[in-house]
Design brief:
Helices cover 38% and strands 5% of the residues. The chain is built from 5 helices and 2 strands; from the N terminus they run αββαααα. The radius of gyration is 20 Å and the shape is elongated.
Length: 117
C-alpha cells in the first residue's frame, strides 16, 4: 500500500523549500552576442570553434547561436575570437540583433540553412 505522507515530513515542507530556492536563484546570464538576458534554454557556445583550438564557452540564446553558425565559417569565427563587439558591427549581425531585440528571451525561429561554400 502506498504512503499517504512521506516518511520525512509533509509535502508542504518541500514546497516552501522550493520557493526559497527560486527566490534566491541568480538572474539568467546575458547572451554573449545580443546582450539580452537568456531564457530557460541557455546554450554554452564556443566563440572560437573547438576545431580551431577554442576552449572558452559563453552563454547564448539558441537563435543567436544558429545565426552565427549559419552566417560565418569556422575560420571567420576564429578571426573574430572572443570579441563579440567586432561581430556586432558586422552588418548581418547588426541587422539580426536589431530584429531580435524586442523578442522574448525564449523566442526561437528557423534562420535558414548554411550557404554552400
Amino acid at each position: 500500500m502506498a504512503r499517504k505522507y512521506s516518511k520525512h515530513g509533509s509535502r508542504d515542507a518541500y514546497d516552501s523549500d522550493d520557493q526559497e530556492i527560486d527566490a534566491s536563484a541568480p538572474p539568467p546570464p546575458a547572451c554573449w552576442l545580443c546582450e539580452r538576458p537568456c531564457g530557460a534554454t541557455v546554450i554554452w557556445h564556443h566563440p572560437v570553434p573547438k576545431s580551431r583550438g577554442g576552449r572558452d564557452t559563453v552563454p547564448m540564446h539558441p537563435i543567436c547561436q544558429n545565426m552565427l553558425i549559419t552566417t560565418f565559417t569556422n575560420s571567420e569565427l576564429q578571426r573574430y575570437g572572443m570579441d563579440a563587439s567586432l561581430l556586432r558591427i558586422e552588418p548581418r549581425v547588426e541587422k539580426f540583433i536589431s530584429w531580435v531585440a524586442n523578442k522574448d528571451p525564449d523566442f526561437n525561429a528557423p534562420l535558414g540553412k548554411k550557404k554552400g561554400r
